[in-house]
Amino acid sequence: MPNTKKIKAFTLSEIIVVLILTTIVVGIAFSVLRLVQKQMLAIQHNYNDQLEVNKLETSLWLDFGRYSELRYNEKDDTLLCKNAIDSVIYQFQESMIIKASDTFPVTITNKELYLKGATVQDAHIDAIKLELSKAFQNRTLFIYTQTDATLSMH
Fold first, then answer.
1. What CA–CA distance (Å, rounded) separates 146 from 154?
2. What is the pLDDT of residues 54-113, one digit of tens each?
3. CA 87, CA 85: separation in Å to the nearest integer?
């Protein structure tokens, strides 16, 4: 007597269809993963840029409050912050600002210097306005200090 009992199993065409569908789903998952990774890198880059801008702004605010004499030199593109004990120099370059051992990778599109509300070029200052590039969302930093009588006496 021949054995006519059927074994339940998947056919070759059913297995191929499952493999094709699995391949499509895995491909879509990797595409979505790649898009999420790109978005996360962009968010991280923006966060790092904003962190650098905030560090620069904090440093300027601290130095404008700490030093009594603020002088901008247009020829060297430097800002000297000085008092009787200490001094610090900000050197403005095309794609960065250097302060002693700190480097702020910030691109400035426009810089305006003020003394008693009037724009100056190469002199003592009491305020500075820095307009940043599009990479930094065109952010504007305005840092100022209260002037005292010693500036008027010189």
1. 16
2. 999 999 999 999 999 999 999 999 999 999 999 999 999 989 999 988 999 999 999 999
3. 7
Distance CA 74, CA 56 (A): 20
Give residue 135's pLDDT band: very low, low, confident or very high (50, 70, 90): confident
**What is the pLDDT at residue 150?**
54
Alpha-carbon gap, residue 91 to 100, rounded angstroms? 9
What is the H or E stretch that residue 125 is in?
none
DSSP 103-117: EE---EEEEEEEETT
Would you state the pLDDT for residue 148? 60
Separation between Cα atoms, residue 42 and residue 50, nearest integer Å: 12
d(CA 142, CA 131): 9
- Amino acid at site 88: V
Residues 77 and 90: their CA atoms lie apart, in Å, by 9
> Is residue 67 within 8 Å of 110, Cβ to Cβ?
no
The length of the chain in residues reads 154
